[in-house]
Amino acid sequence: MNEEKIQxxxxxxxxxxxxxxxxxxxxxxxxxxxxxxxxxxxEMIESFWFFKANFVYKLAVILIVITGTVSFASERxxxxxxxxxxxxxxxxxxxxxxxxxxxxxxxKVIQVARRLEEAEKLSxxxxxxxxxxxxxxxxxxxxxxxTITRLSVMAEKEEINKESITxxxxxxxxxxxxxxxxxxxTSTLPLKVQSVLFRLEDVDRRYKEKRDQRRNSxxxxxxxxxxxxxxxxxxxxxxxxEGVHKIKGLVEMPSACHSLEIEARVxxxxxxxxxxxxxxxxxxxVCILILEQREFEIEFNxxxxxxxxxxxxxxxxVVDFALE
Amino acid sequence: xxxxxxxxIEAFEENADNIYRFxxxxxxxxxxxxxxxxxxxxxxxxxxxxxxxxxxxxxxLFKVARNxxxxxxxxxxxxxxxxLMEEGMFEPVDNESVSAEERSDALLAYELLKQIPNExxxxxxxxxxxxxxxxxxAQITGETENAVAVRCHRAVKKVREMFDKGKK
Lengths: 324, 168
Prior knowledge:
Strand order of the largest sheet of chain A: 3-4-6-7
Oligomer: heterodimer
Helix content of chain B: over 70%
Shape of chain A: extended
Largest sheet of chain B: none
Helix content of chain A: 40-55%
Radius of gyration of chain B: 17 Å
Distance between the termini of chain A: 34 Å
Distance between the termini of chain B: 60 Å
Largest sheet of chain A: 4 strands, mixed
Structural class of chain B: mainly alpha
Shape of chain B: globular
Number of helices of chain B: 8
Order of helices and strands of chain B: HHHHHHHH
Number of helices of chain A: 10
Strand content of chain A: 15-25%
Number of strands of chain A: 7
Number of strands of chain B: 0
Structural class of chain A: alpha+beta
Order of helices and strands of chain A: HHHHHHHHHHEEEEEEE
């Protein structure tokens, strides 16, 4: 039987379908749901903002809507050019449209690098005077501060792929760290770049400290949470025949007063992940703590490749027996 | 009705039977399959209405259905489809909805699918009943295209072996 033949045979399954009535009922439910849950319109907020925006922003919005970007001319523009404000407005709009914080920080890093690149281009073109340099410094400082602040907040929460963002940020800054091109009059741009690099290192250090603290505390928790009252499997036998697993053995109970329930939870995937869950508790106020071995036996359906783990009152059990 | 809603309803018309079938063969329970198929569309709309259009809505619907089925099994932790099929509780074809010929084809396909080992059933259904590409299947199962292709190849080999054995 070749692939084509299999396809032909299996296609027959497509004759199994919903009856007309069933589909009609389902359609009504879906239509009602669609009607009751209309599309969330972001444009409503944006349109209000649009009317209030000044001409430059309107132009940038129109360009982004029509072309997906602000014009190439404005993209290439430098501080002091007529279209530069359109470029900045376009960046601000794009940034506002980014909802994911990590992507927003990434975009800000790009903006920082752009400001430095612009300063470099102006310097090469001999257009970087003191006034221009001061303006660029302000812009650079403003965006860098915002980026570092956001990065710190995210890093504190450990909600961020911080390594890749800081590495990217640092690499972009290092290019300009000692650039002599910015040495115009009293320009302090190289110093500001170095200052941002120091702050970035500081964020990195604090992030690592916090991460280590958390790891240590997790380890302590694991140690402290190690259950005193955990059953231990003393004997284990496993049989598998025609898709049925049979597991039996002896489990050491924390005391003779403890009850024991056992169930198999089979997660439907391949290979199946099976949890043999022991639930045990004791309501006795006084009980002699003598370890007692109790027999257990359970059967479940799963393939021969299923992975099996043992859980005791929601805690993983260490099992020293190999299941064969 | 706006554009997105219209497209979604069209997707419902095109895929409702397929999603129902997919659920039915994984769950072995018609009523439950119907419910999960419906929930699949409702959940997908919740996503689409907030996030906008999805590039491959069909694959997305199958993915949602697949996740719902997995969740269901996690909850009930009981009878697998194999068990239900073996017990004969699952009559796959309603007389009212198909012709005699279609019913016969469906039963043949059902018998074939029943014999295919569990790990290959899903990929065989998506590939040969739904006519999906490896890429689409990979989107649904979360595997790589390569892994899907290998599994498909093994499934065909397995079916061929089954038939050869049957002939002997």
